[in-house]
Amino acid sequence: MKNSAKSGIVFLVVFVIYFGISSCSSVDINDDKSVIGRMQGTWVGFDHENGRYTHYKLKISGNNFNGWLTTTYTEKEPEWSDKPDEIGTFELSPVQGYTNMSGNYRNINFSKEGVGYSDNSLAARTFTEMIIYDDFSGLYVVSWAAMTKK
Questions:
Q1: In the chain, how many H helices and how many E strands?
Q2: Contact 58/65 with Cβ under 8 angstroms?
Q3: Average pLDDT value over all residues in the chain
Q4: For residue range 49-96, what is the model confidence (pLDDT) as tens digits?
Q5: Contact, 97 vs 104, CB < 8 A?
Q6: What's the whole-number mean pLDDT along residues 8-23?
Q7: Are 106 and 95 in contact (CB under 8 A)?
Q8: Phi then psi dihedrals of residue 88, to 5 deg
Q9: Dihedral over Cα of 107, 134, 46, 87: its sign
Q10: For labelling alongside 50, which of 5, 17, 29, 86 has CA 20 to 30 A away?
Q11: Cα 56 from chain centroid (whole Å)
């Protein structure tokens, strides 16, 4: 077998393996269970405005969340308290499309435990306004960057 034929076979095998792994690990953003499954775990991220950093930490289990918010003057992840600022549940919005780029996202409506959306707390509203599920990044701080899964 010639080197070019071997190279072609190796390339084909690598391509098939890569495609197989990426298709198994991808999440169908239209499937609530798949999205919620990918969201499970602890996530941290931050945004930055006027010299201040707002840090976010979410621990997601099922449709429940524990959330922490803190503001600092550095991008370094803060020491989080043992007690979350917010405990509650969340729901996903229908799939939305970006207007200025490709890709899709879903808003996450965080609700304080035992309280309806209309009487929601400031922390739960802040999470709702700032964190989305993006089909490329997972959890994402709006207009800033992807959150990191811990």
A1: 3, 10
A2: yes
A3: 85
A4: 999 999 999 999 999 999 999 999 999 999 999 999 999 999 999 999
A5: yes
A6: 41
A7: yes
A8: 180, -155
A9: positive
A10: 86
A11: 11
Average pLDDT (122-148) is 93
pTM of the model: 0.78
Beta bridge partners, 134, equal 105, 138
Distance CA(102)–CA(63), nearest Å, equals 28
Burial of residue 135 (number of CB atoms within 10 Å: 0-12, 13-18, 19+): buried
CB 150 within 8 A of CB 129: no
How many Å apart are CA 125 and CA 118, to the nearest integer? 10
- Tokens (6 digits) for 67: 């959330």
Distance of alpha carbon 49 from alpha carbon 121, whole angstroms: 22
Give the Cα separation of 125 and 79 in Å (integer): 23
Q: Where are the alpha helices (DSSP H) in 59-112?
A: none
Q: pLDDT, tens digit, for every residue of 29-56?
A: 999 999 999 999 999 999 999 999 999 9
Nearest residue to 110 (alpha-carbon basis) of 90, 86, 94: 90
Confidence of residue 26 (pLDDT cuts 50, 70, 90): confident
| 66 CA to centre of own chain | 14
Cβ(67)–Cβ(86) under 8 Å? yes
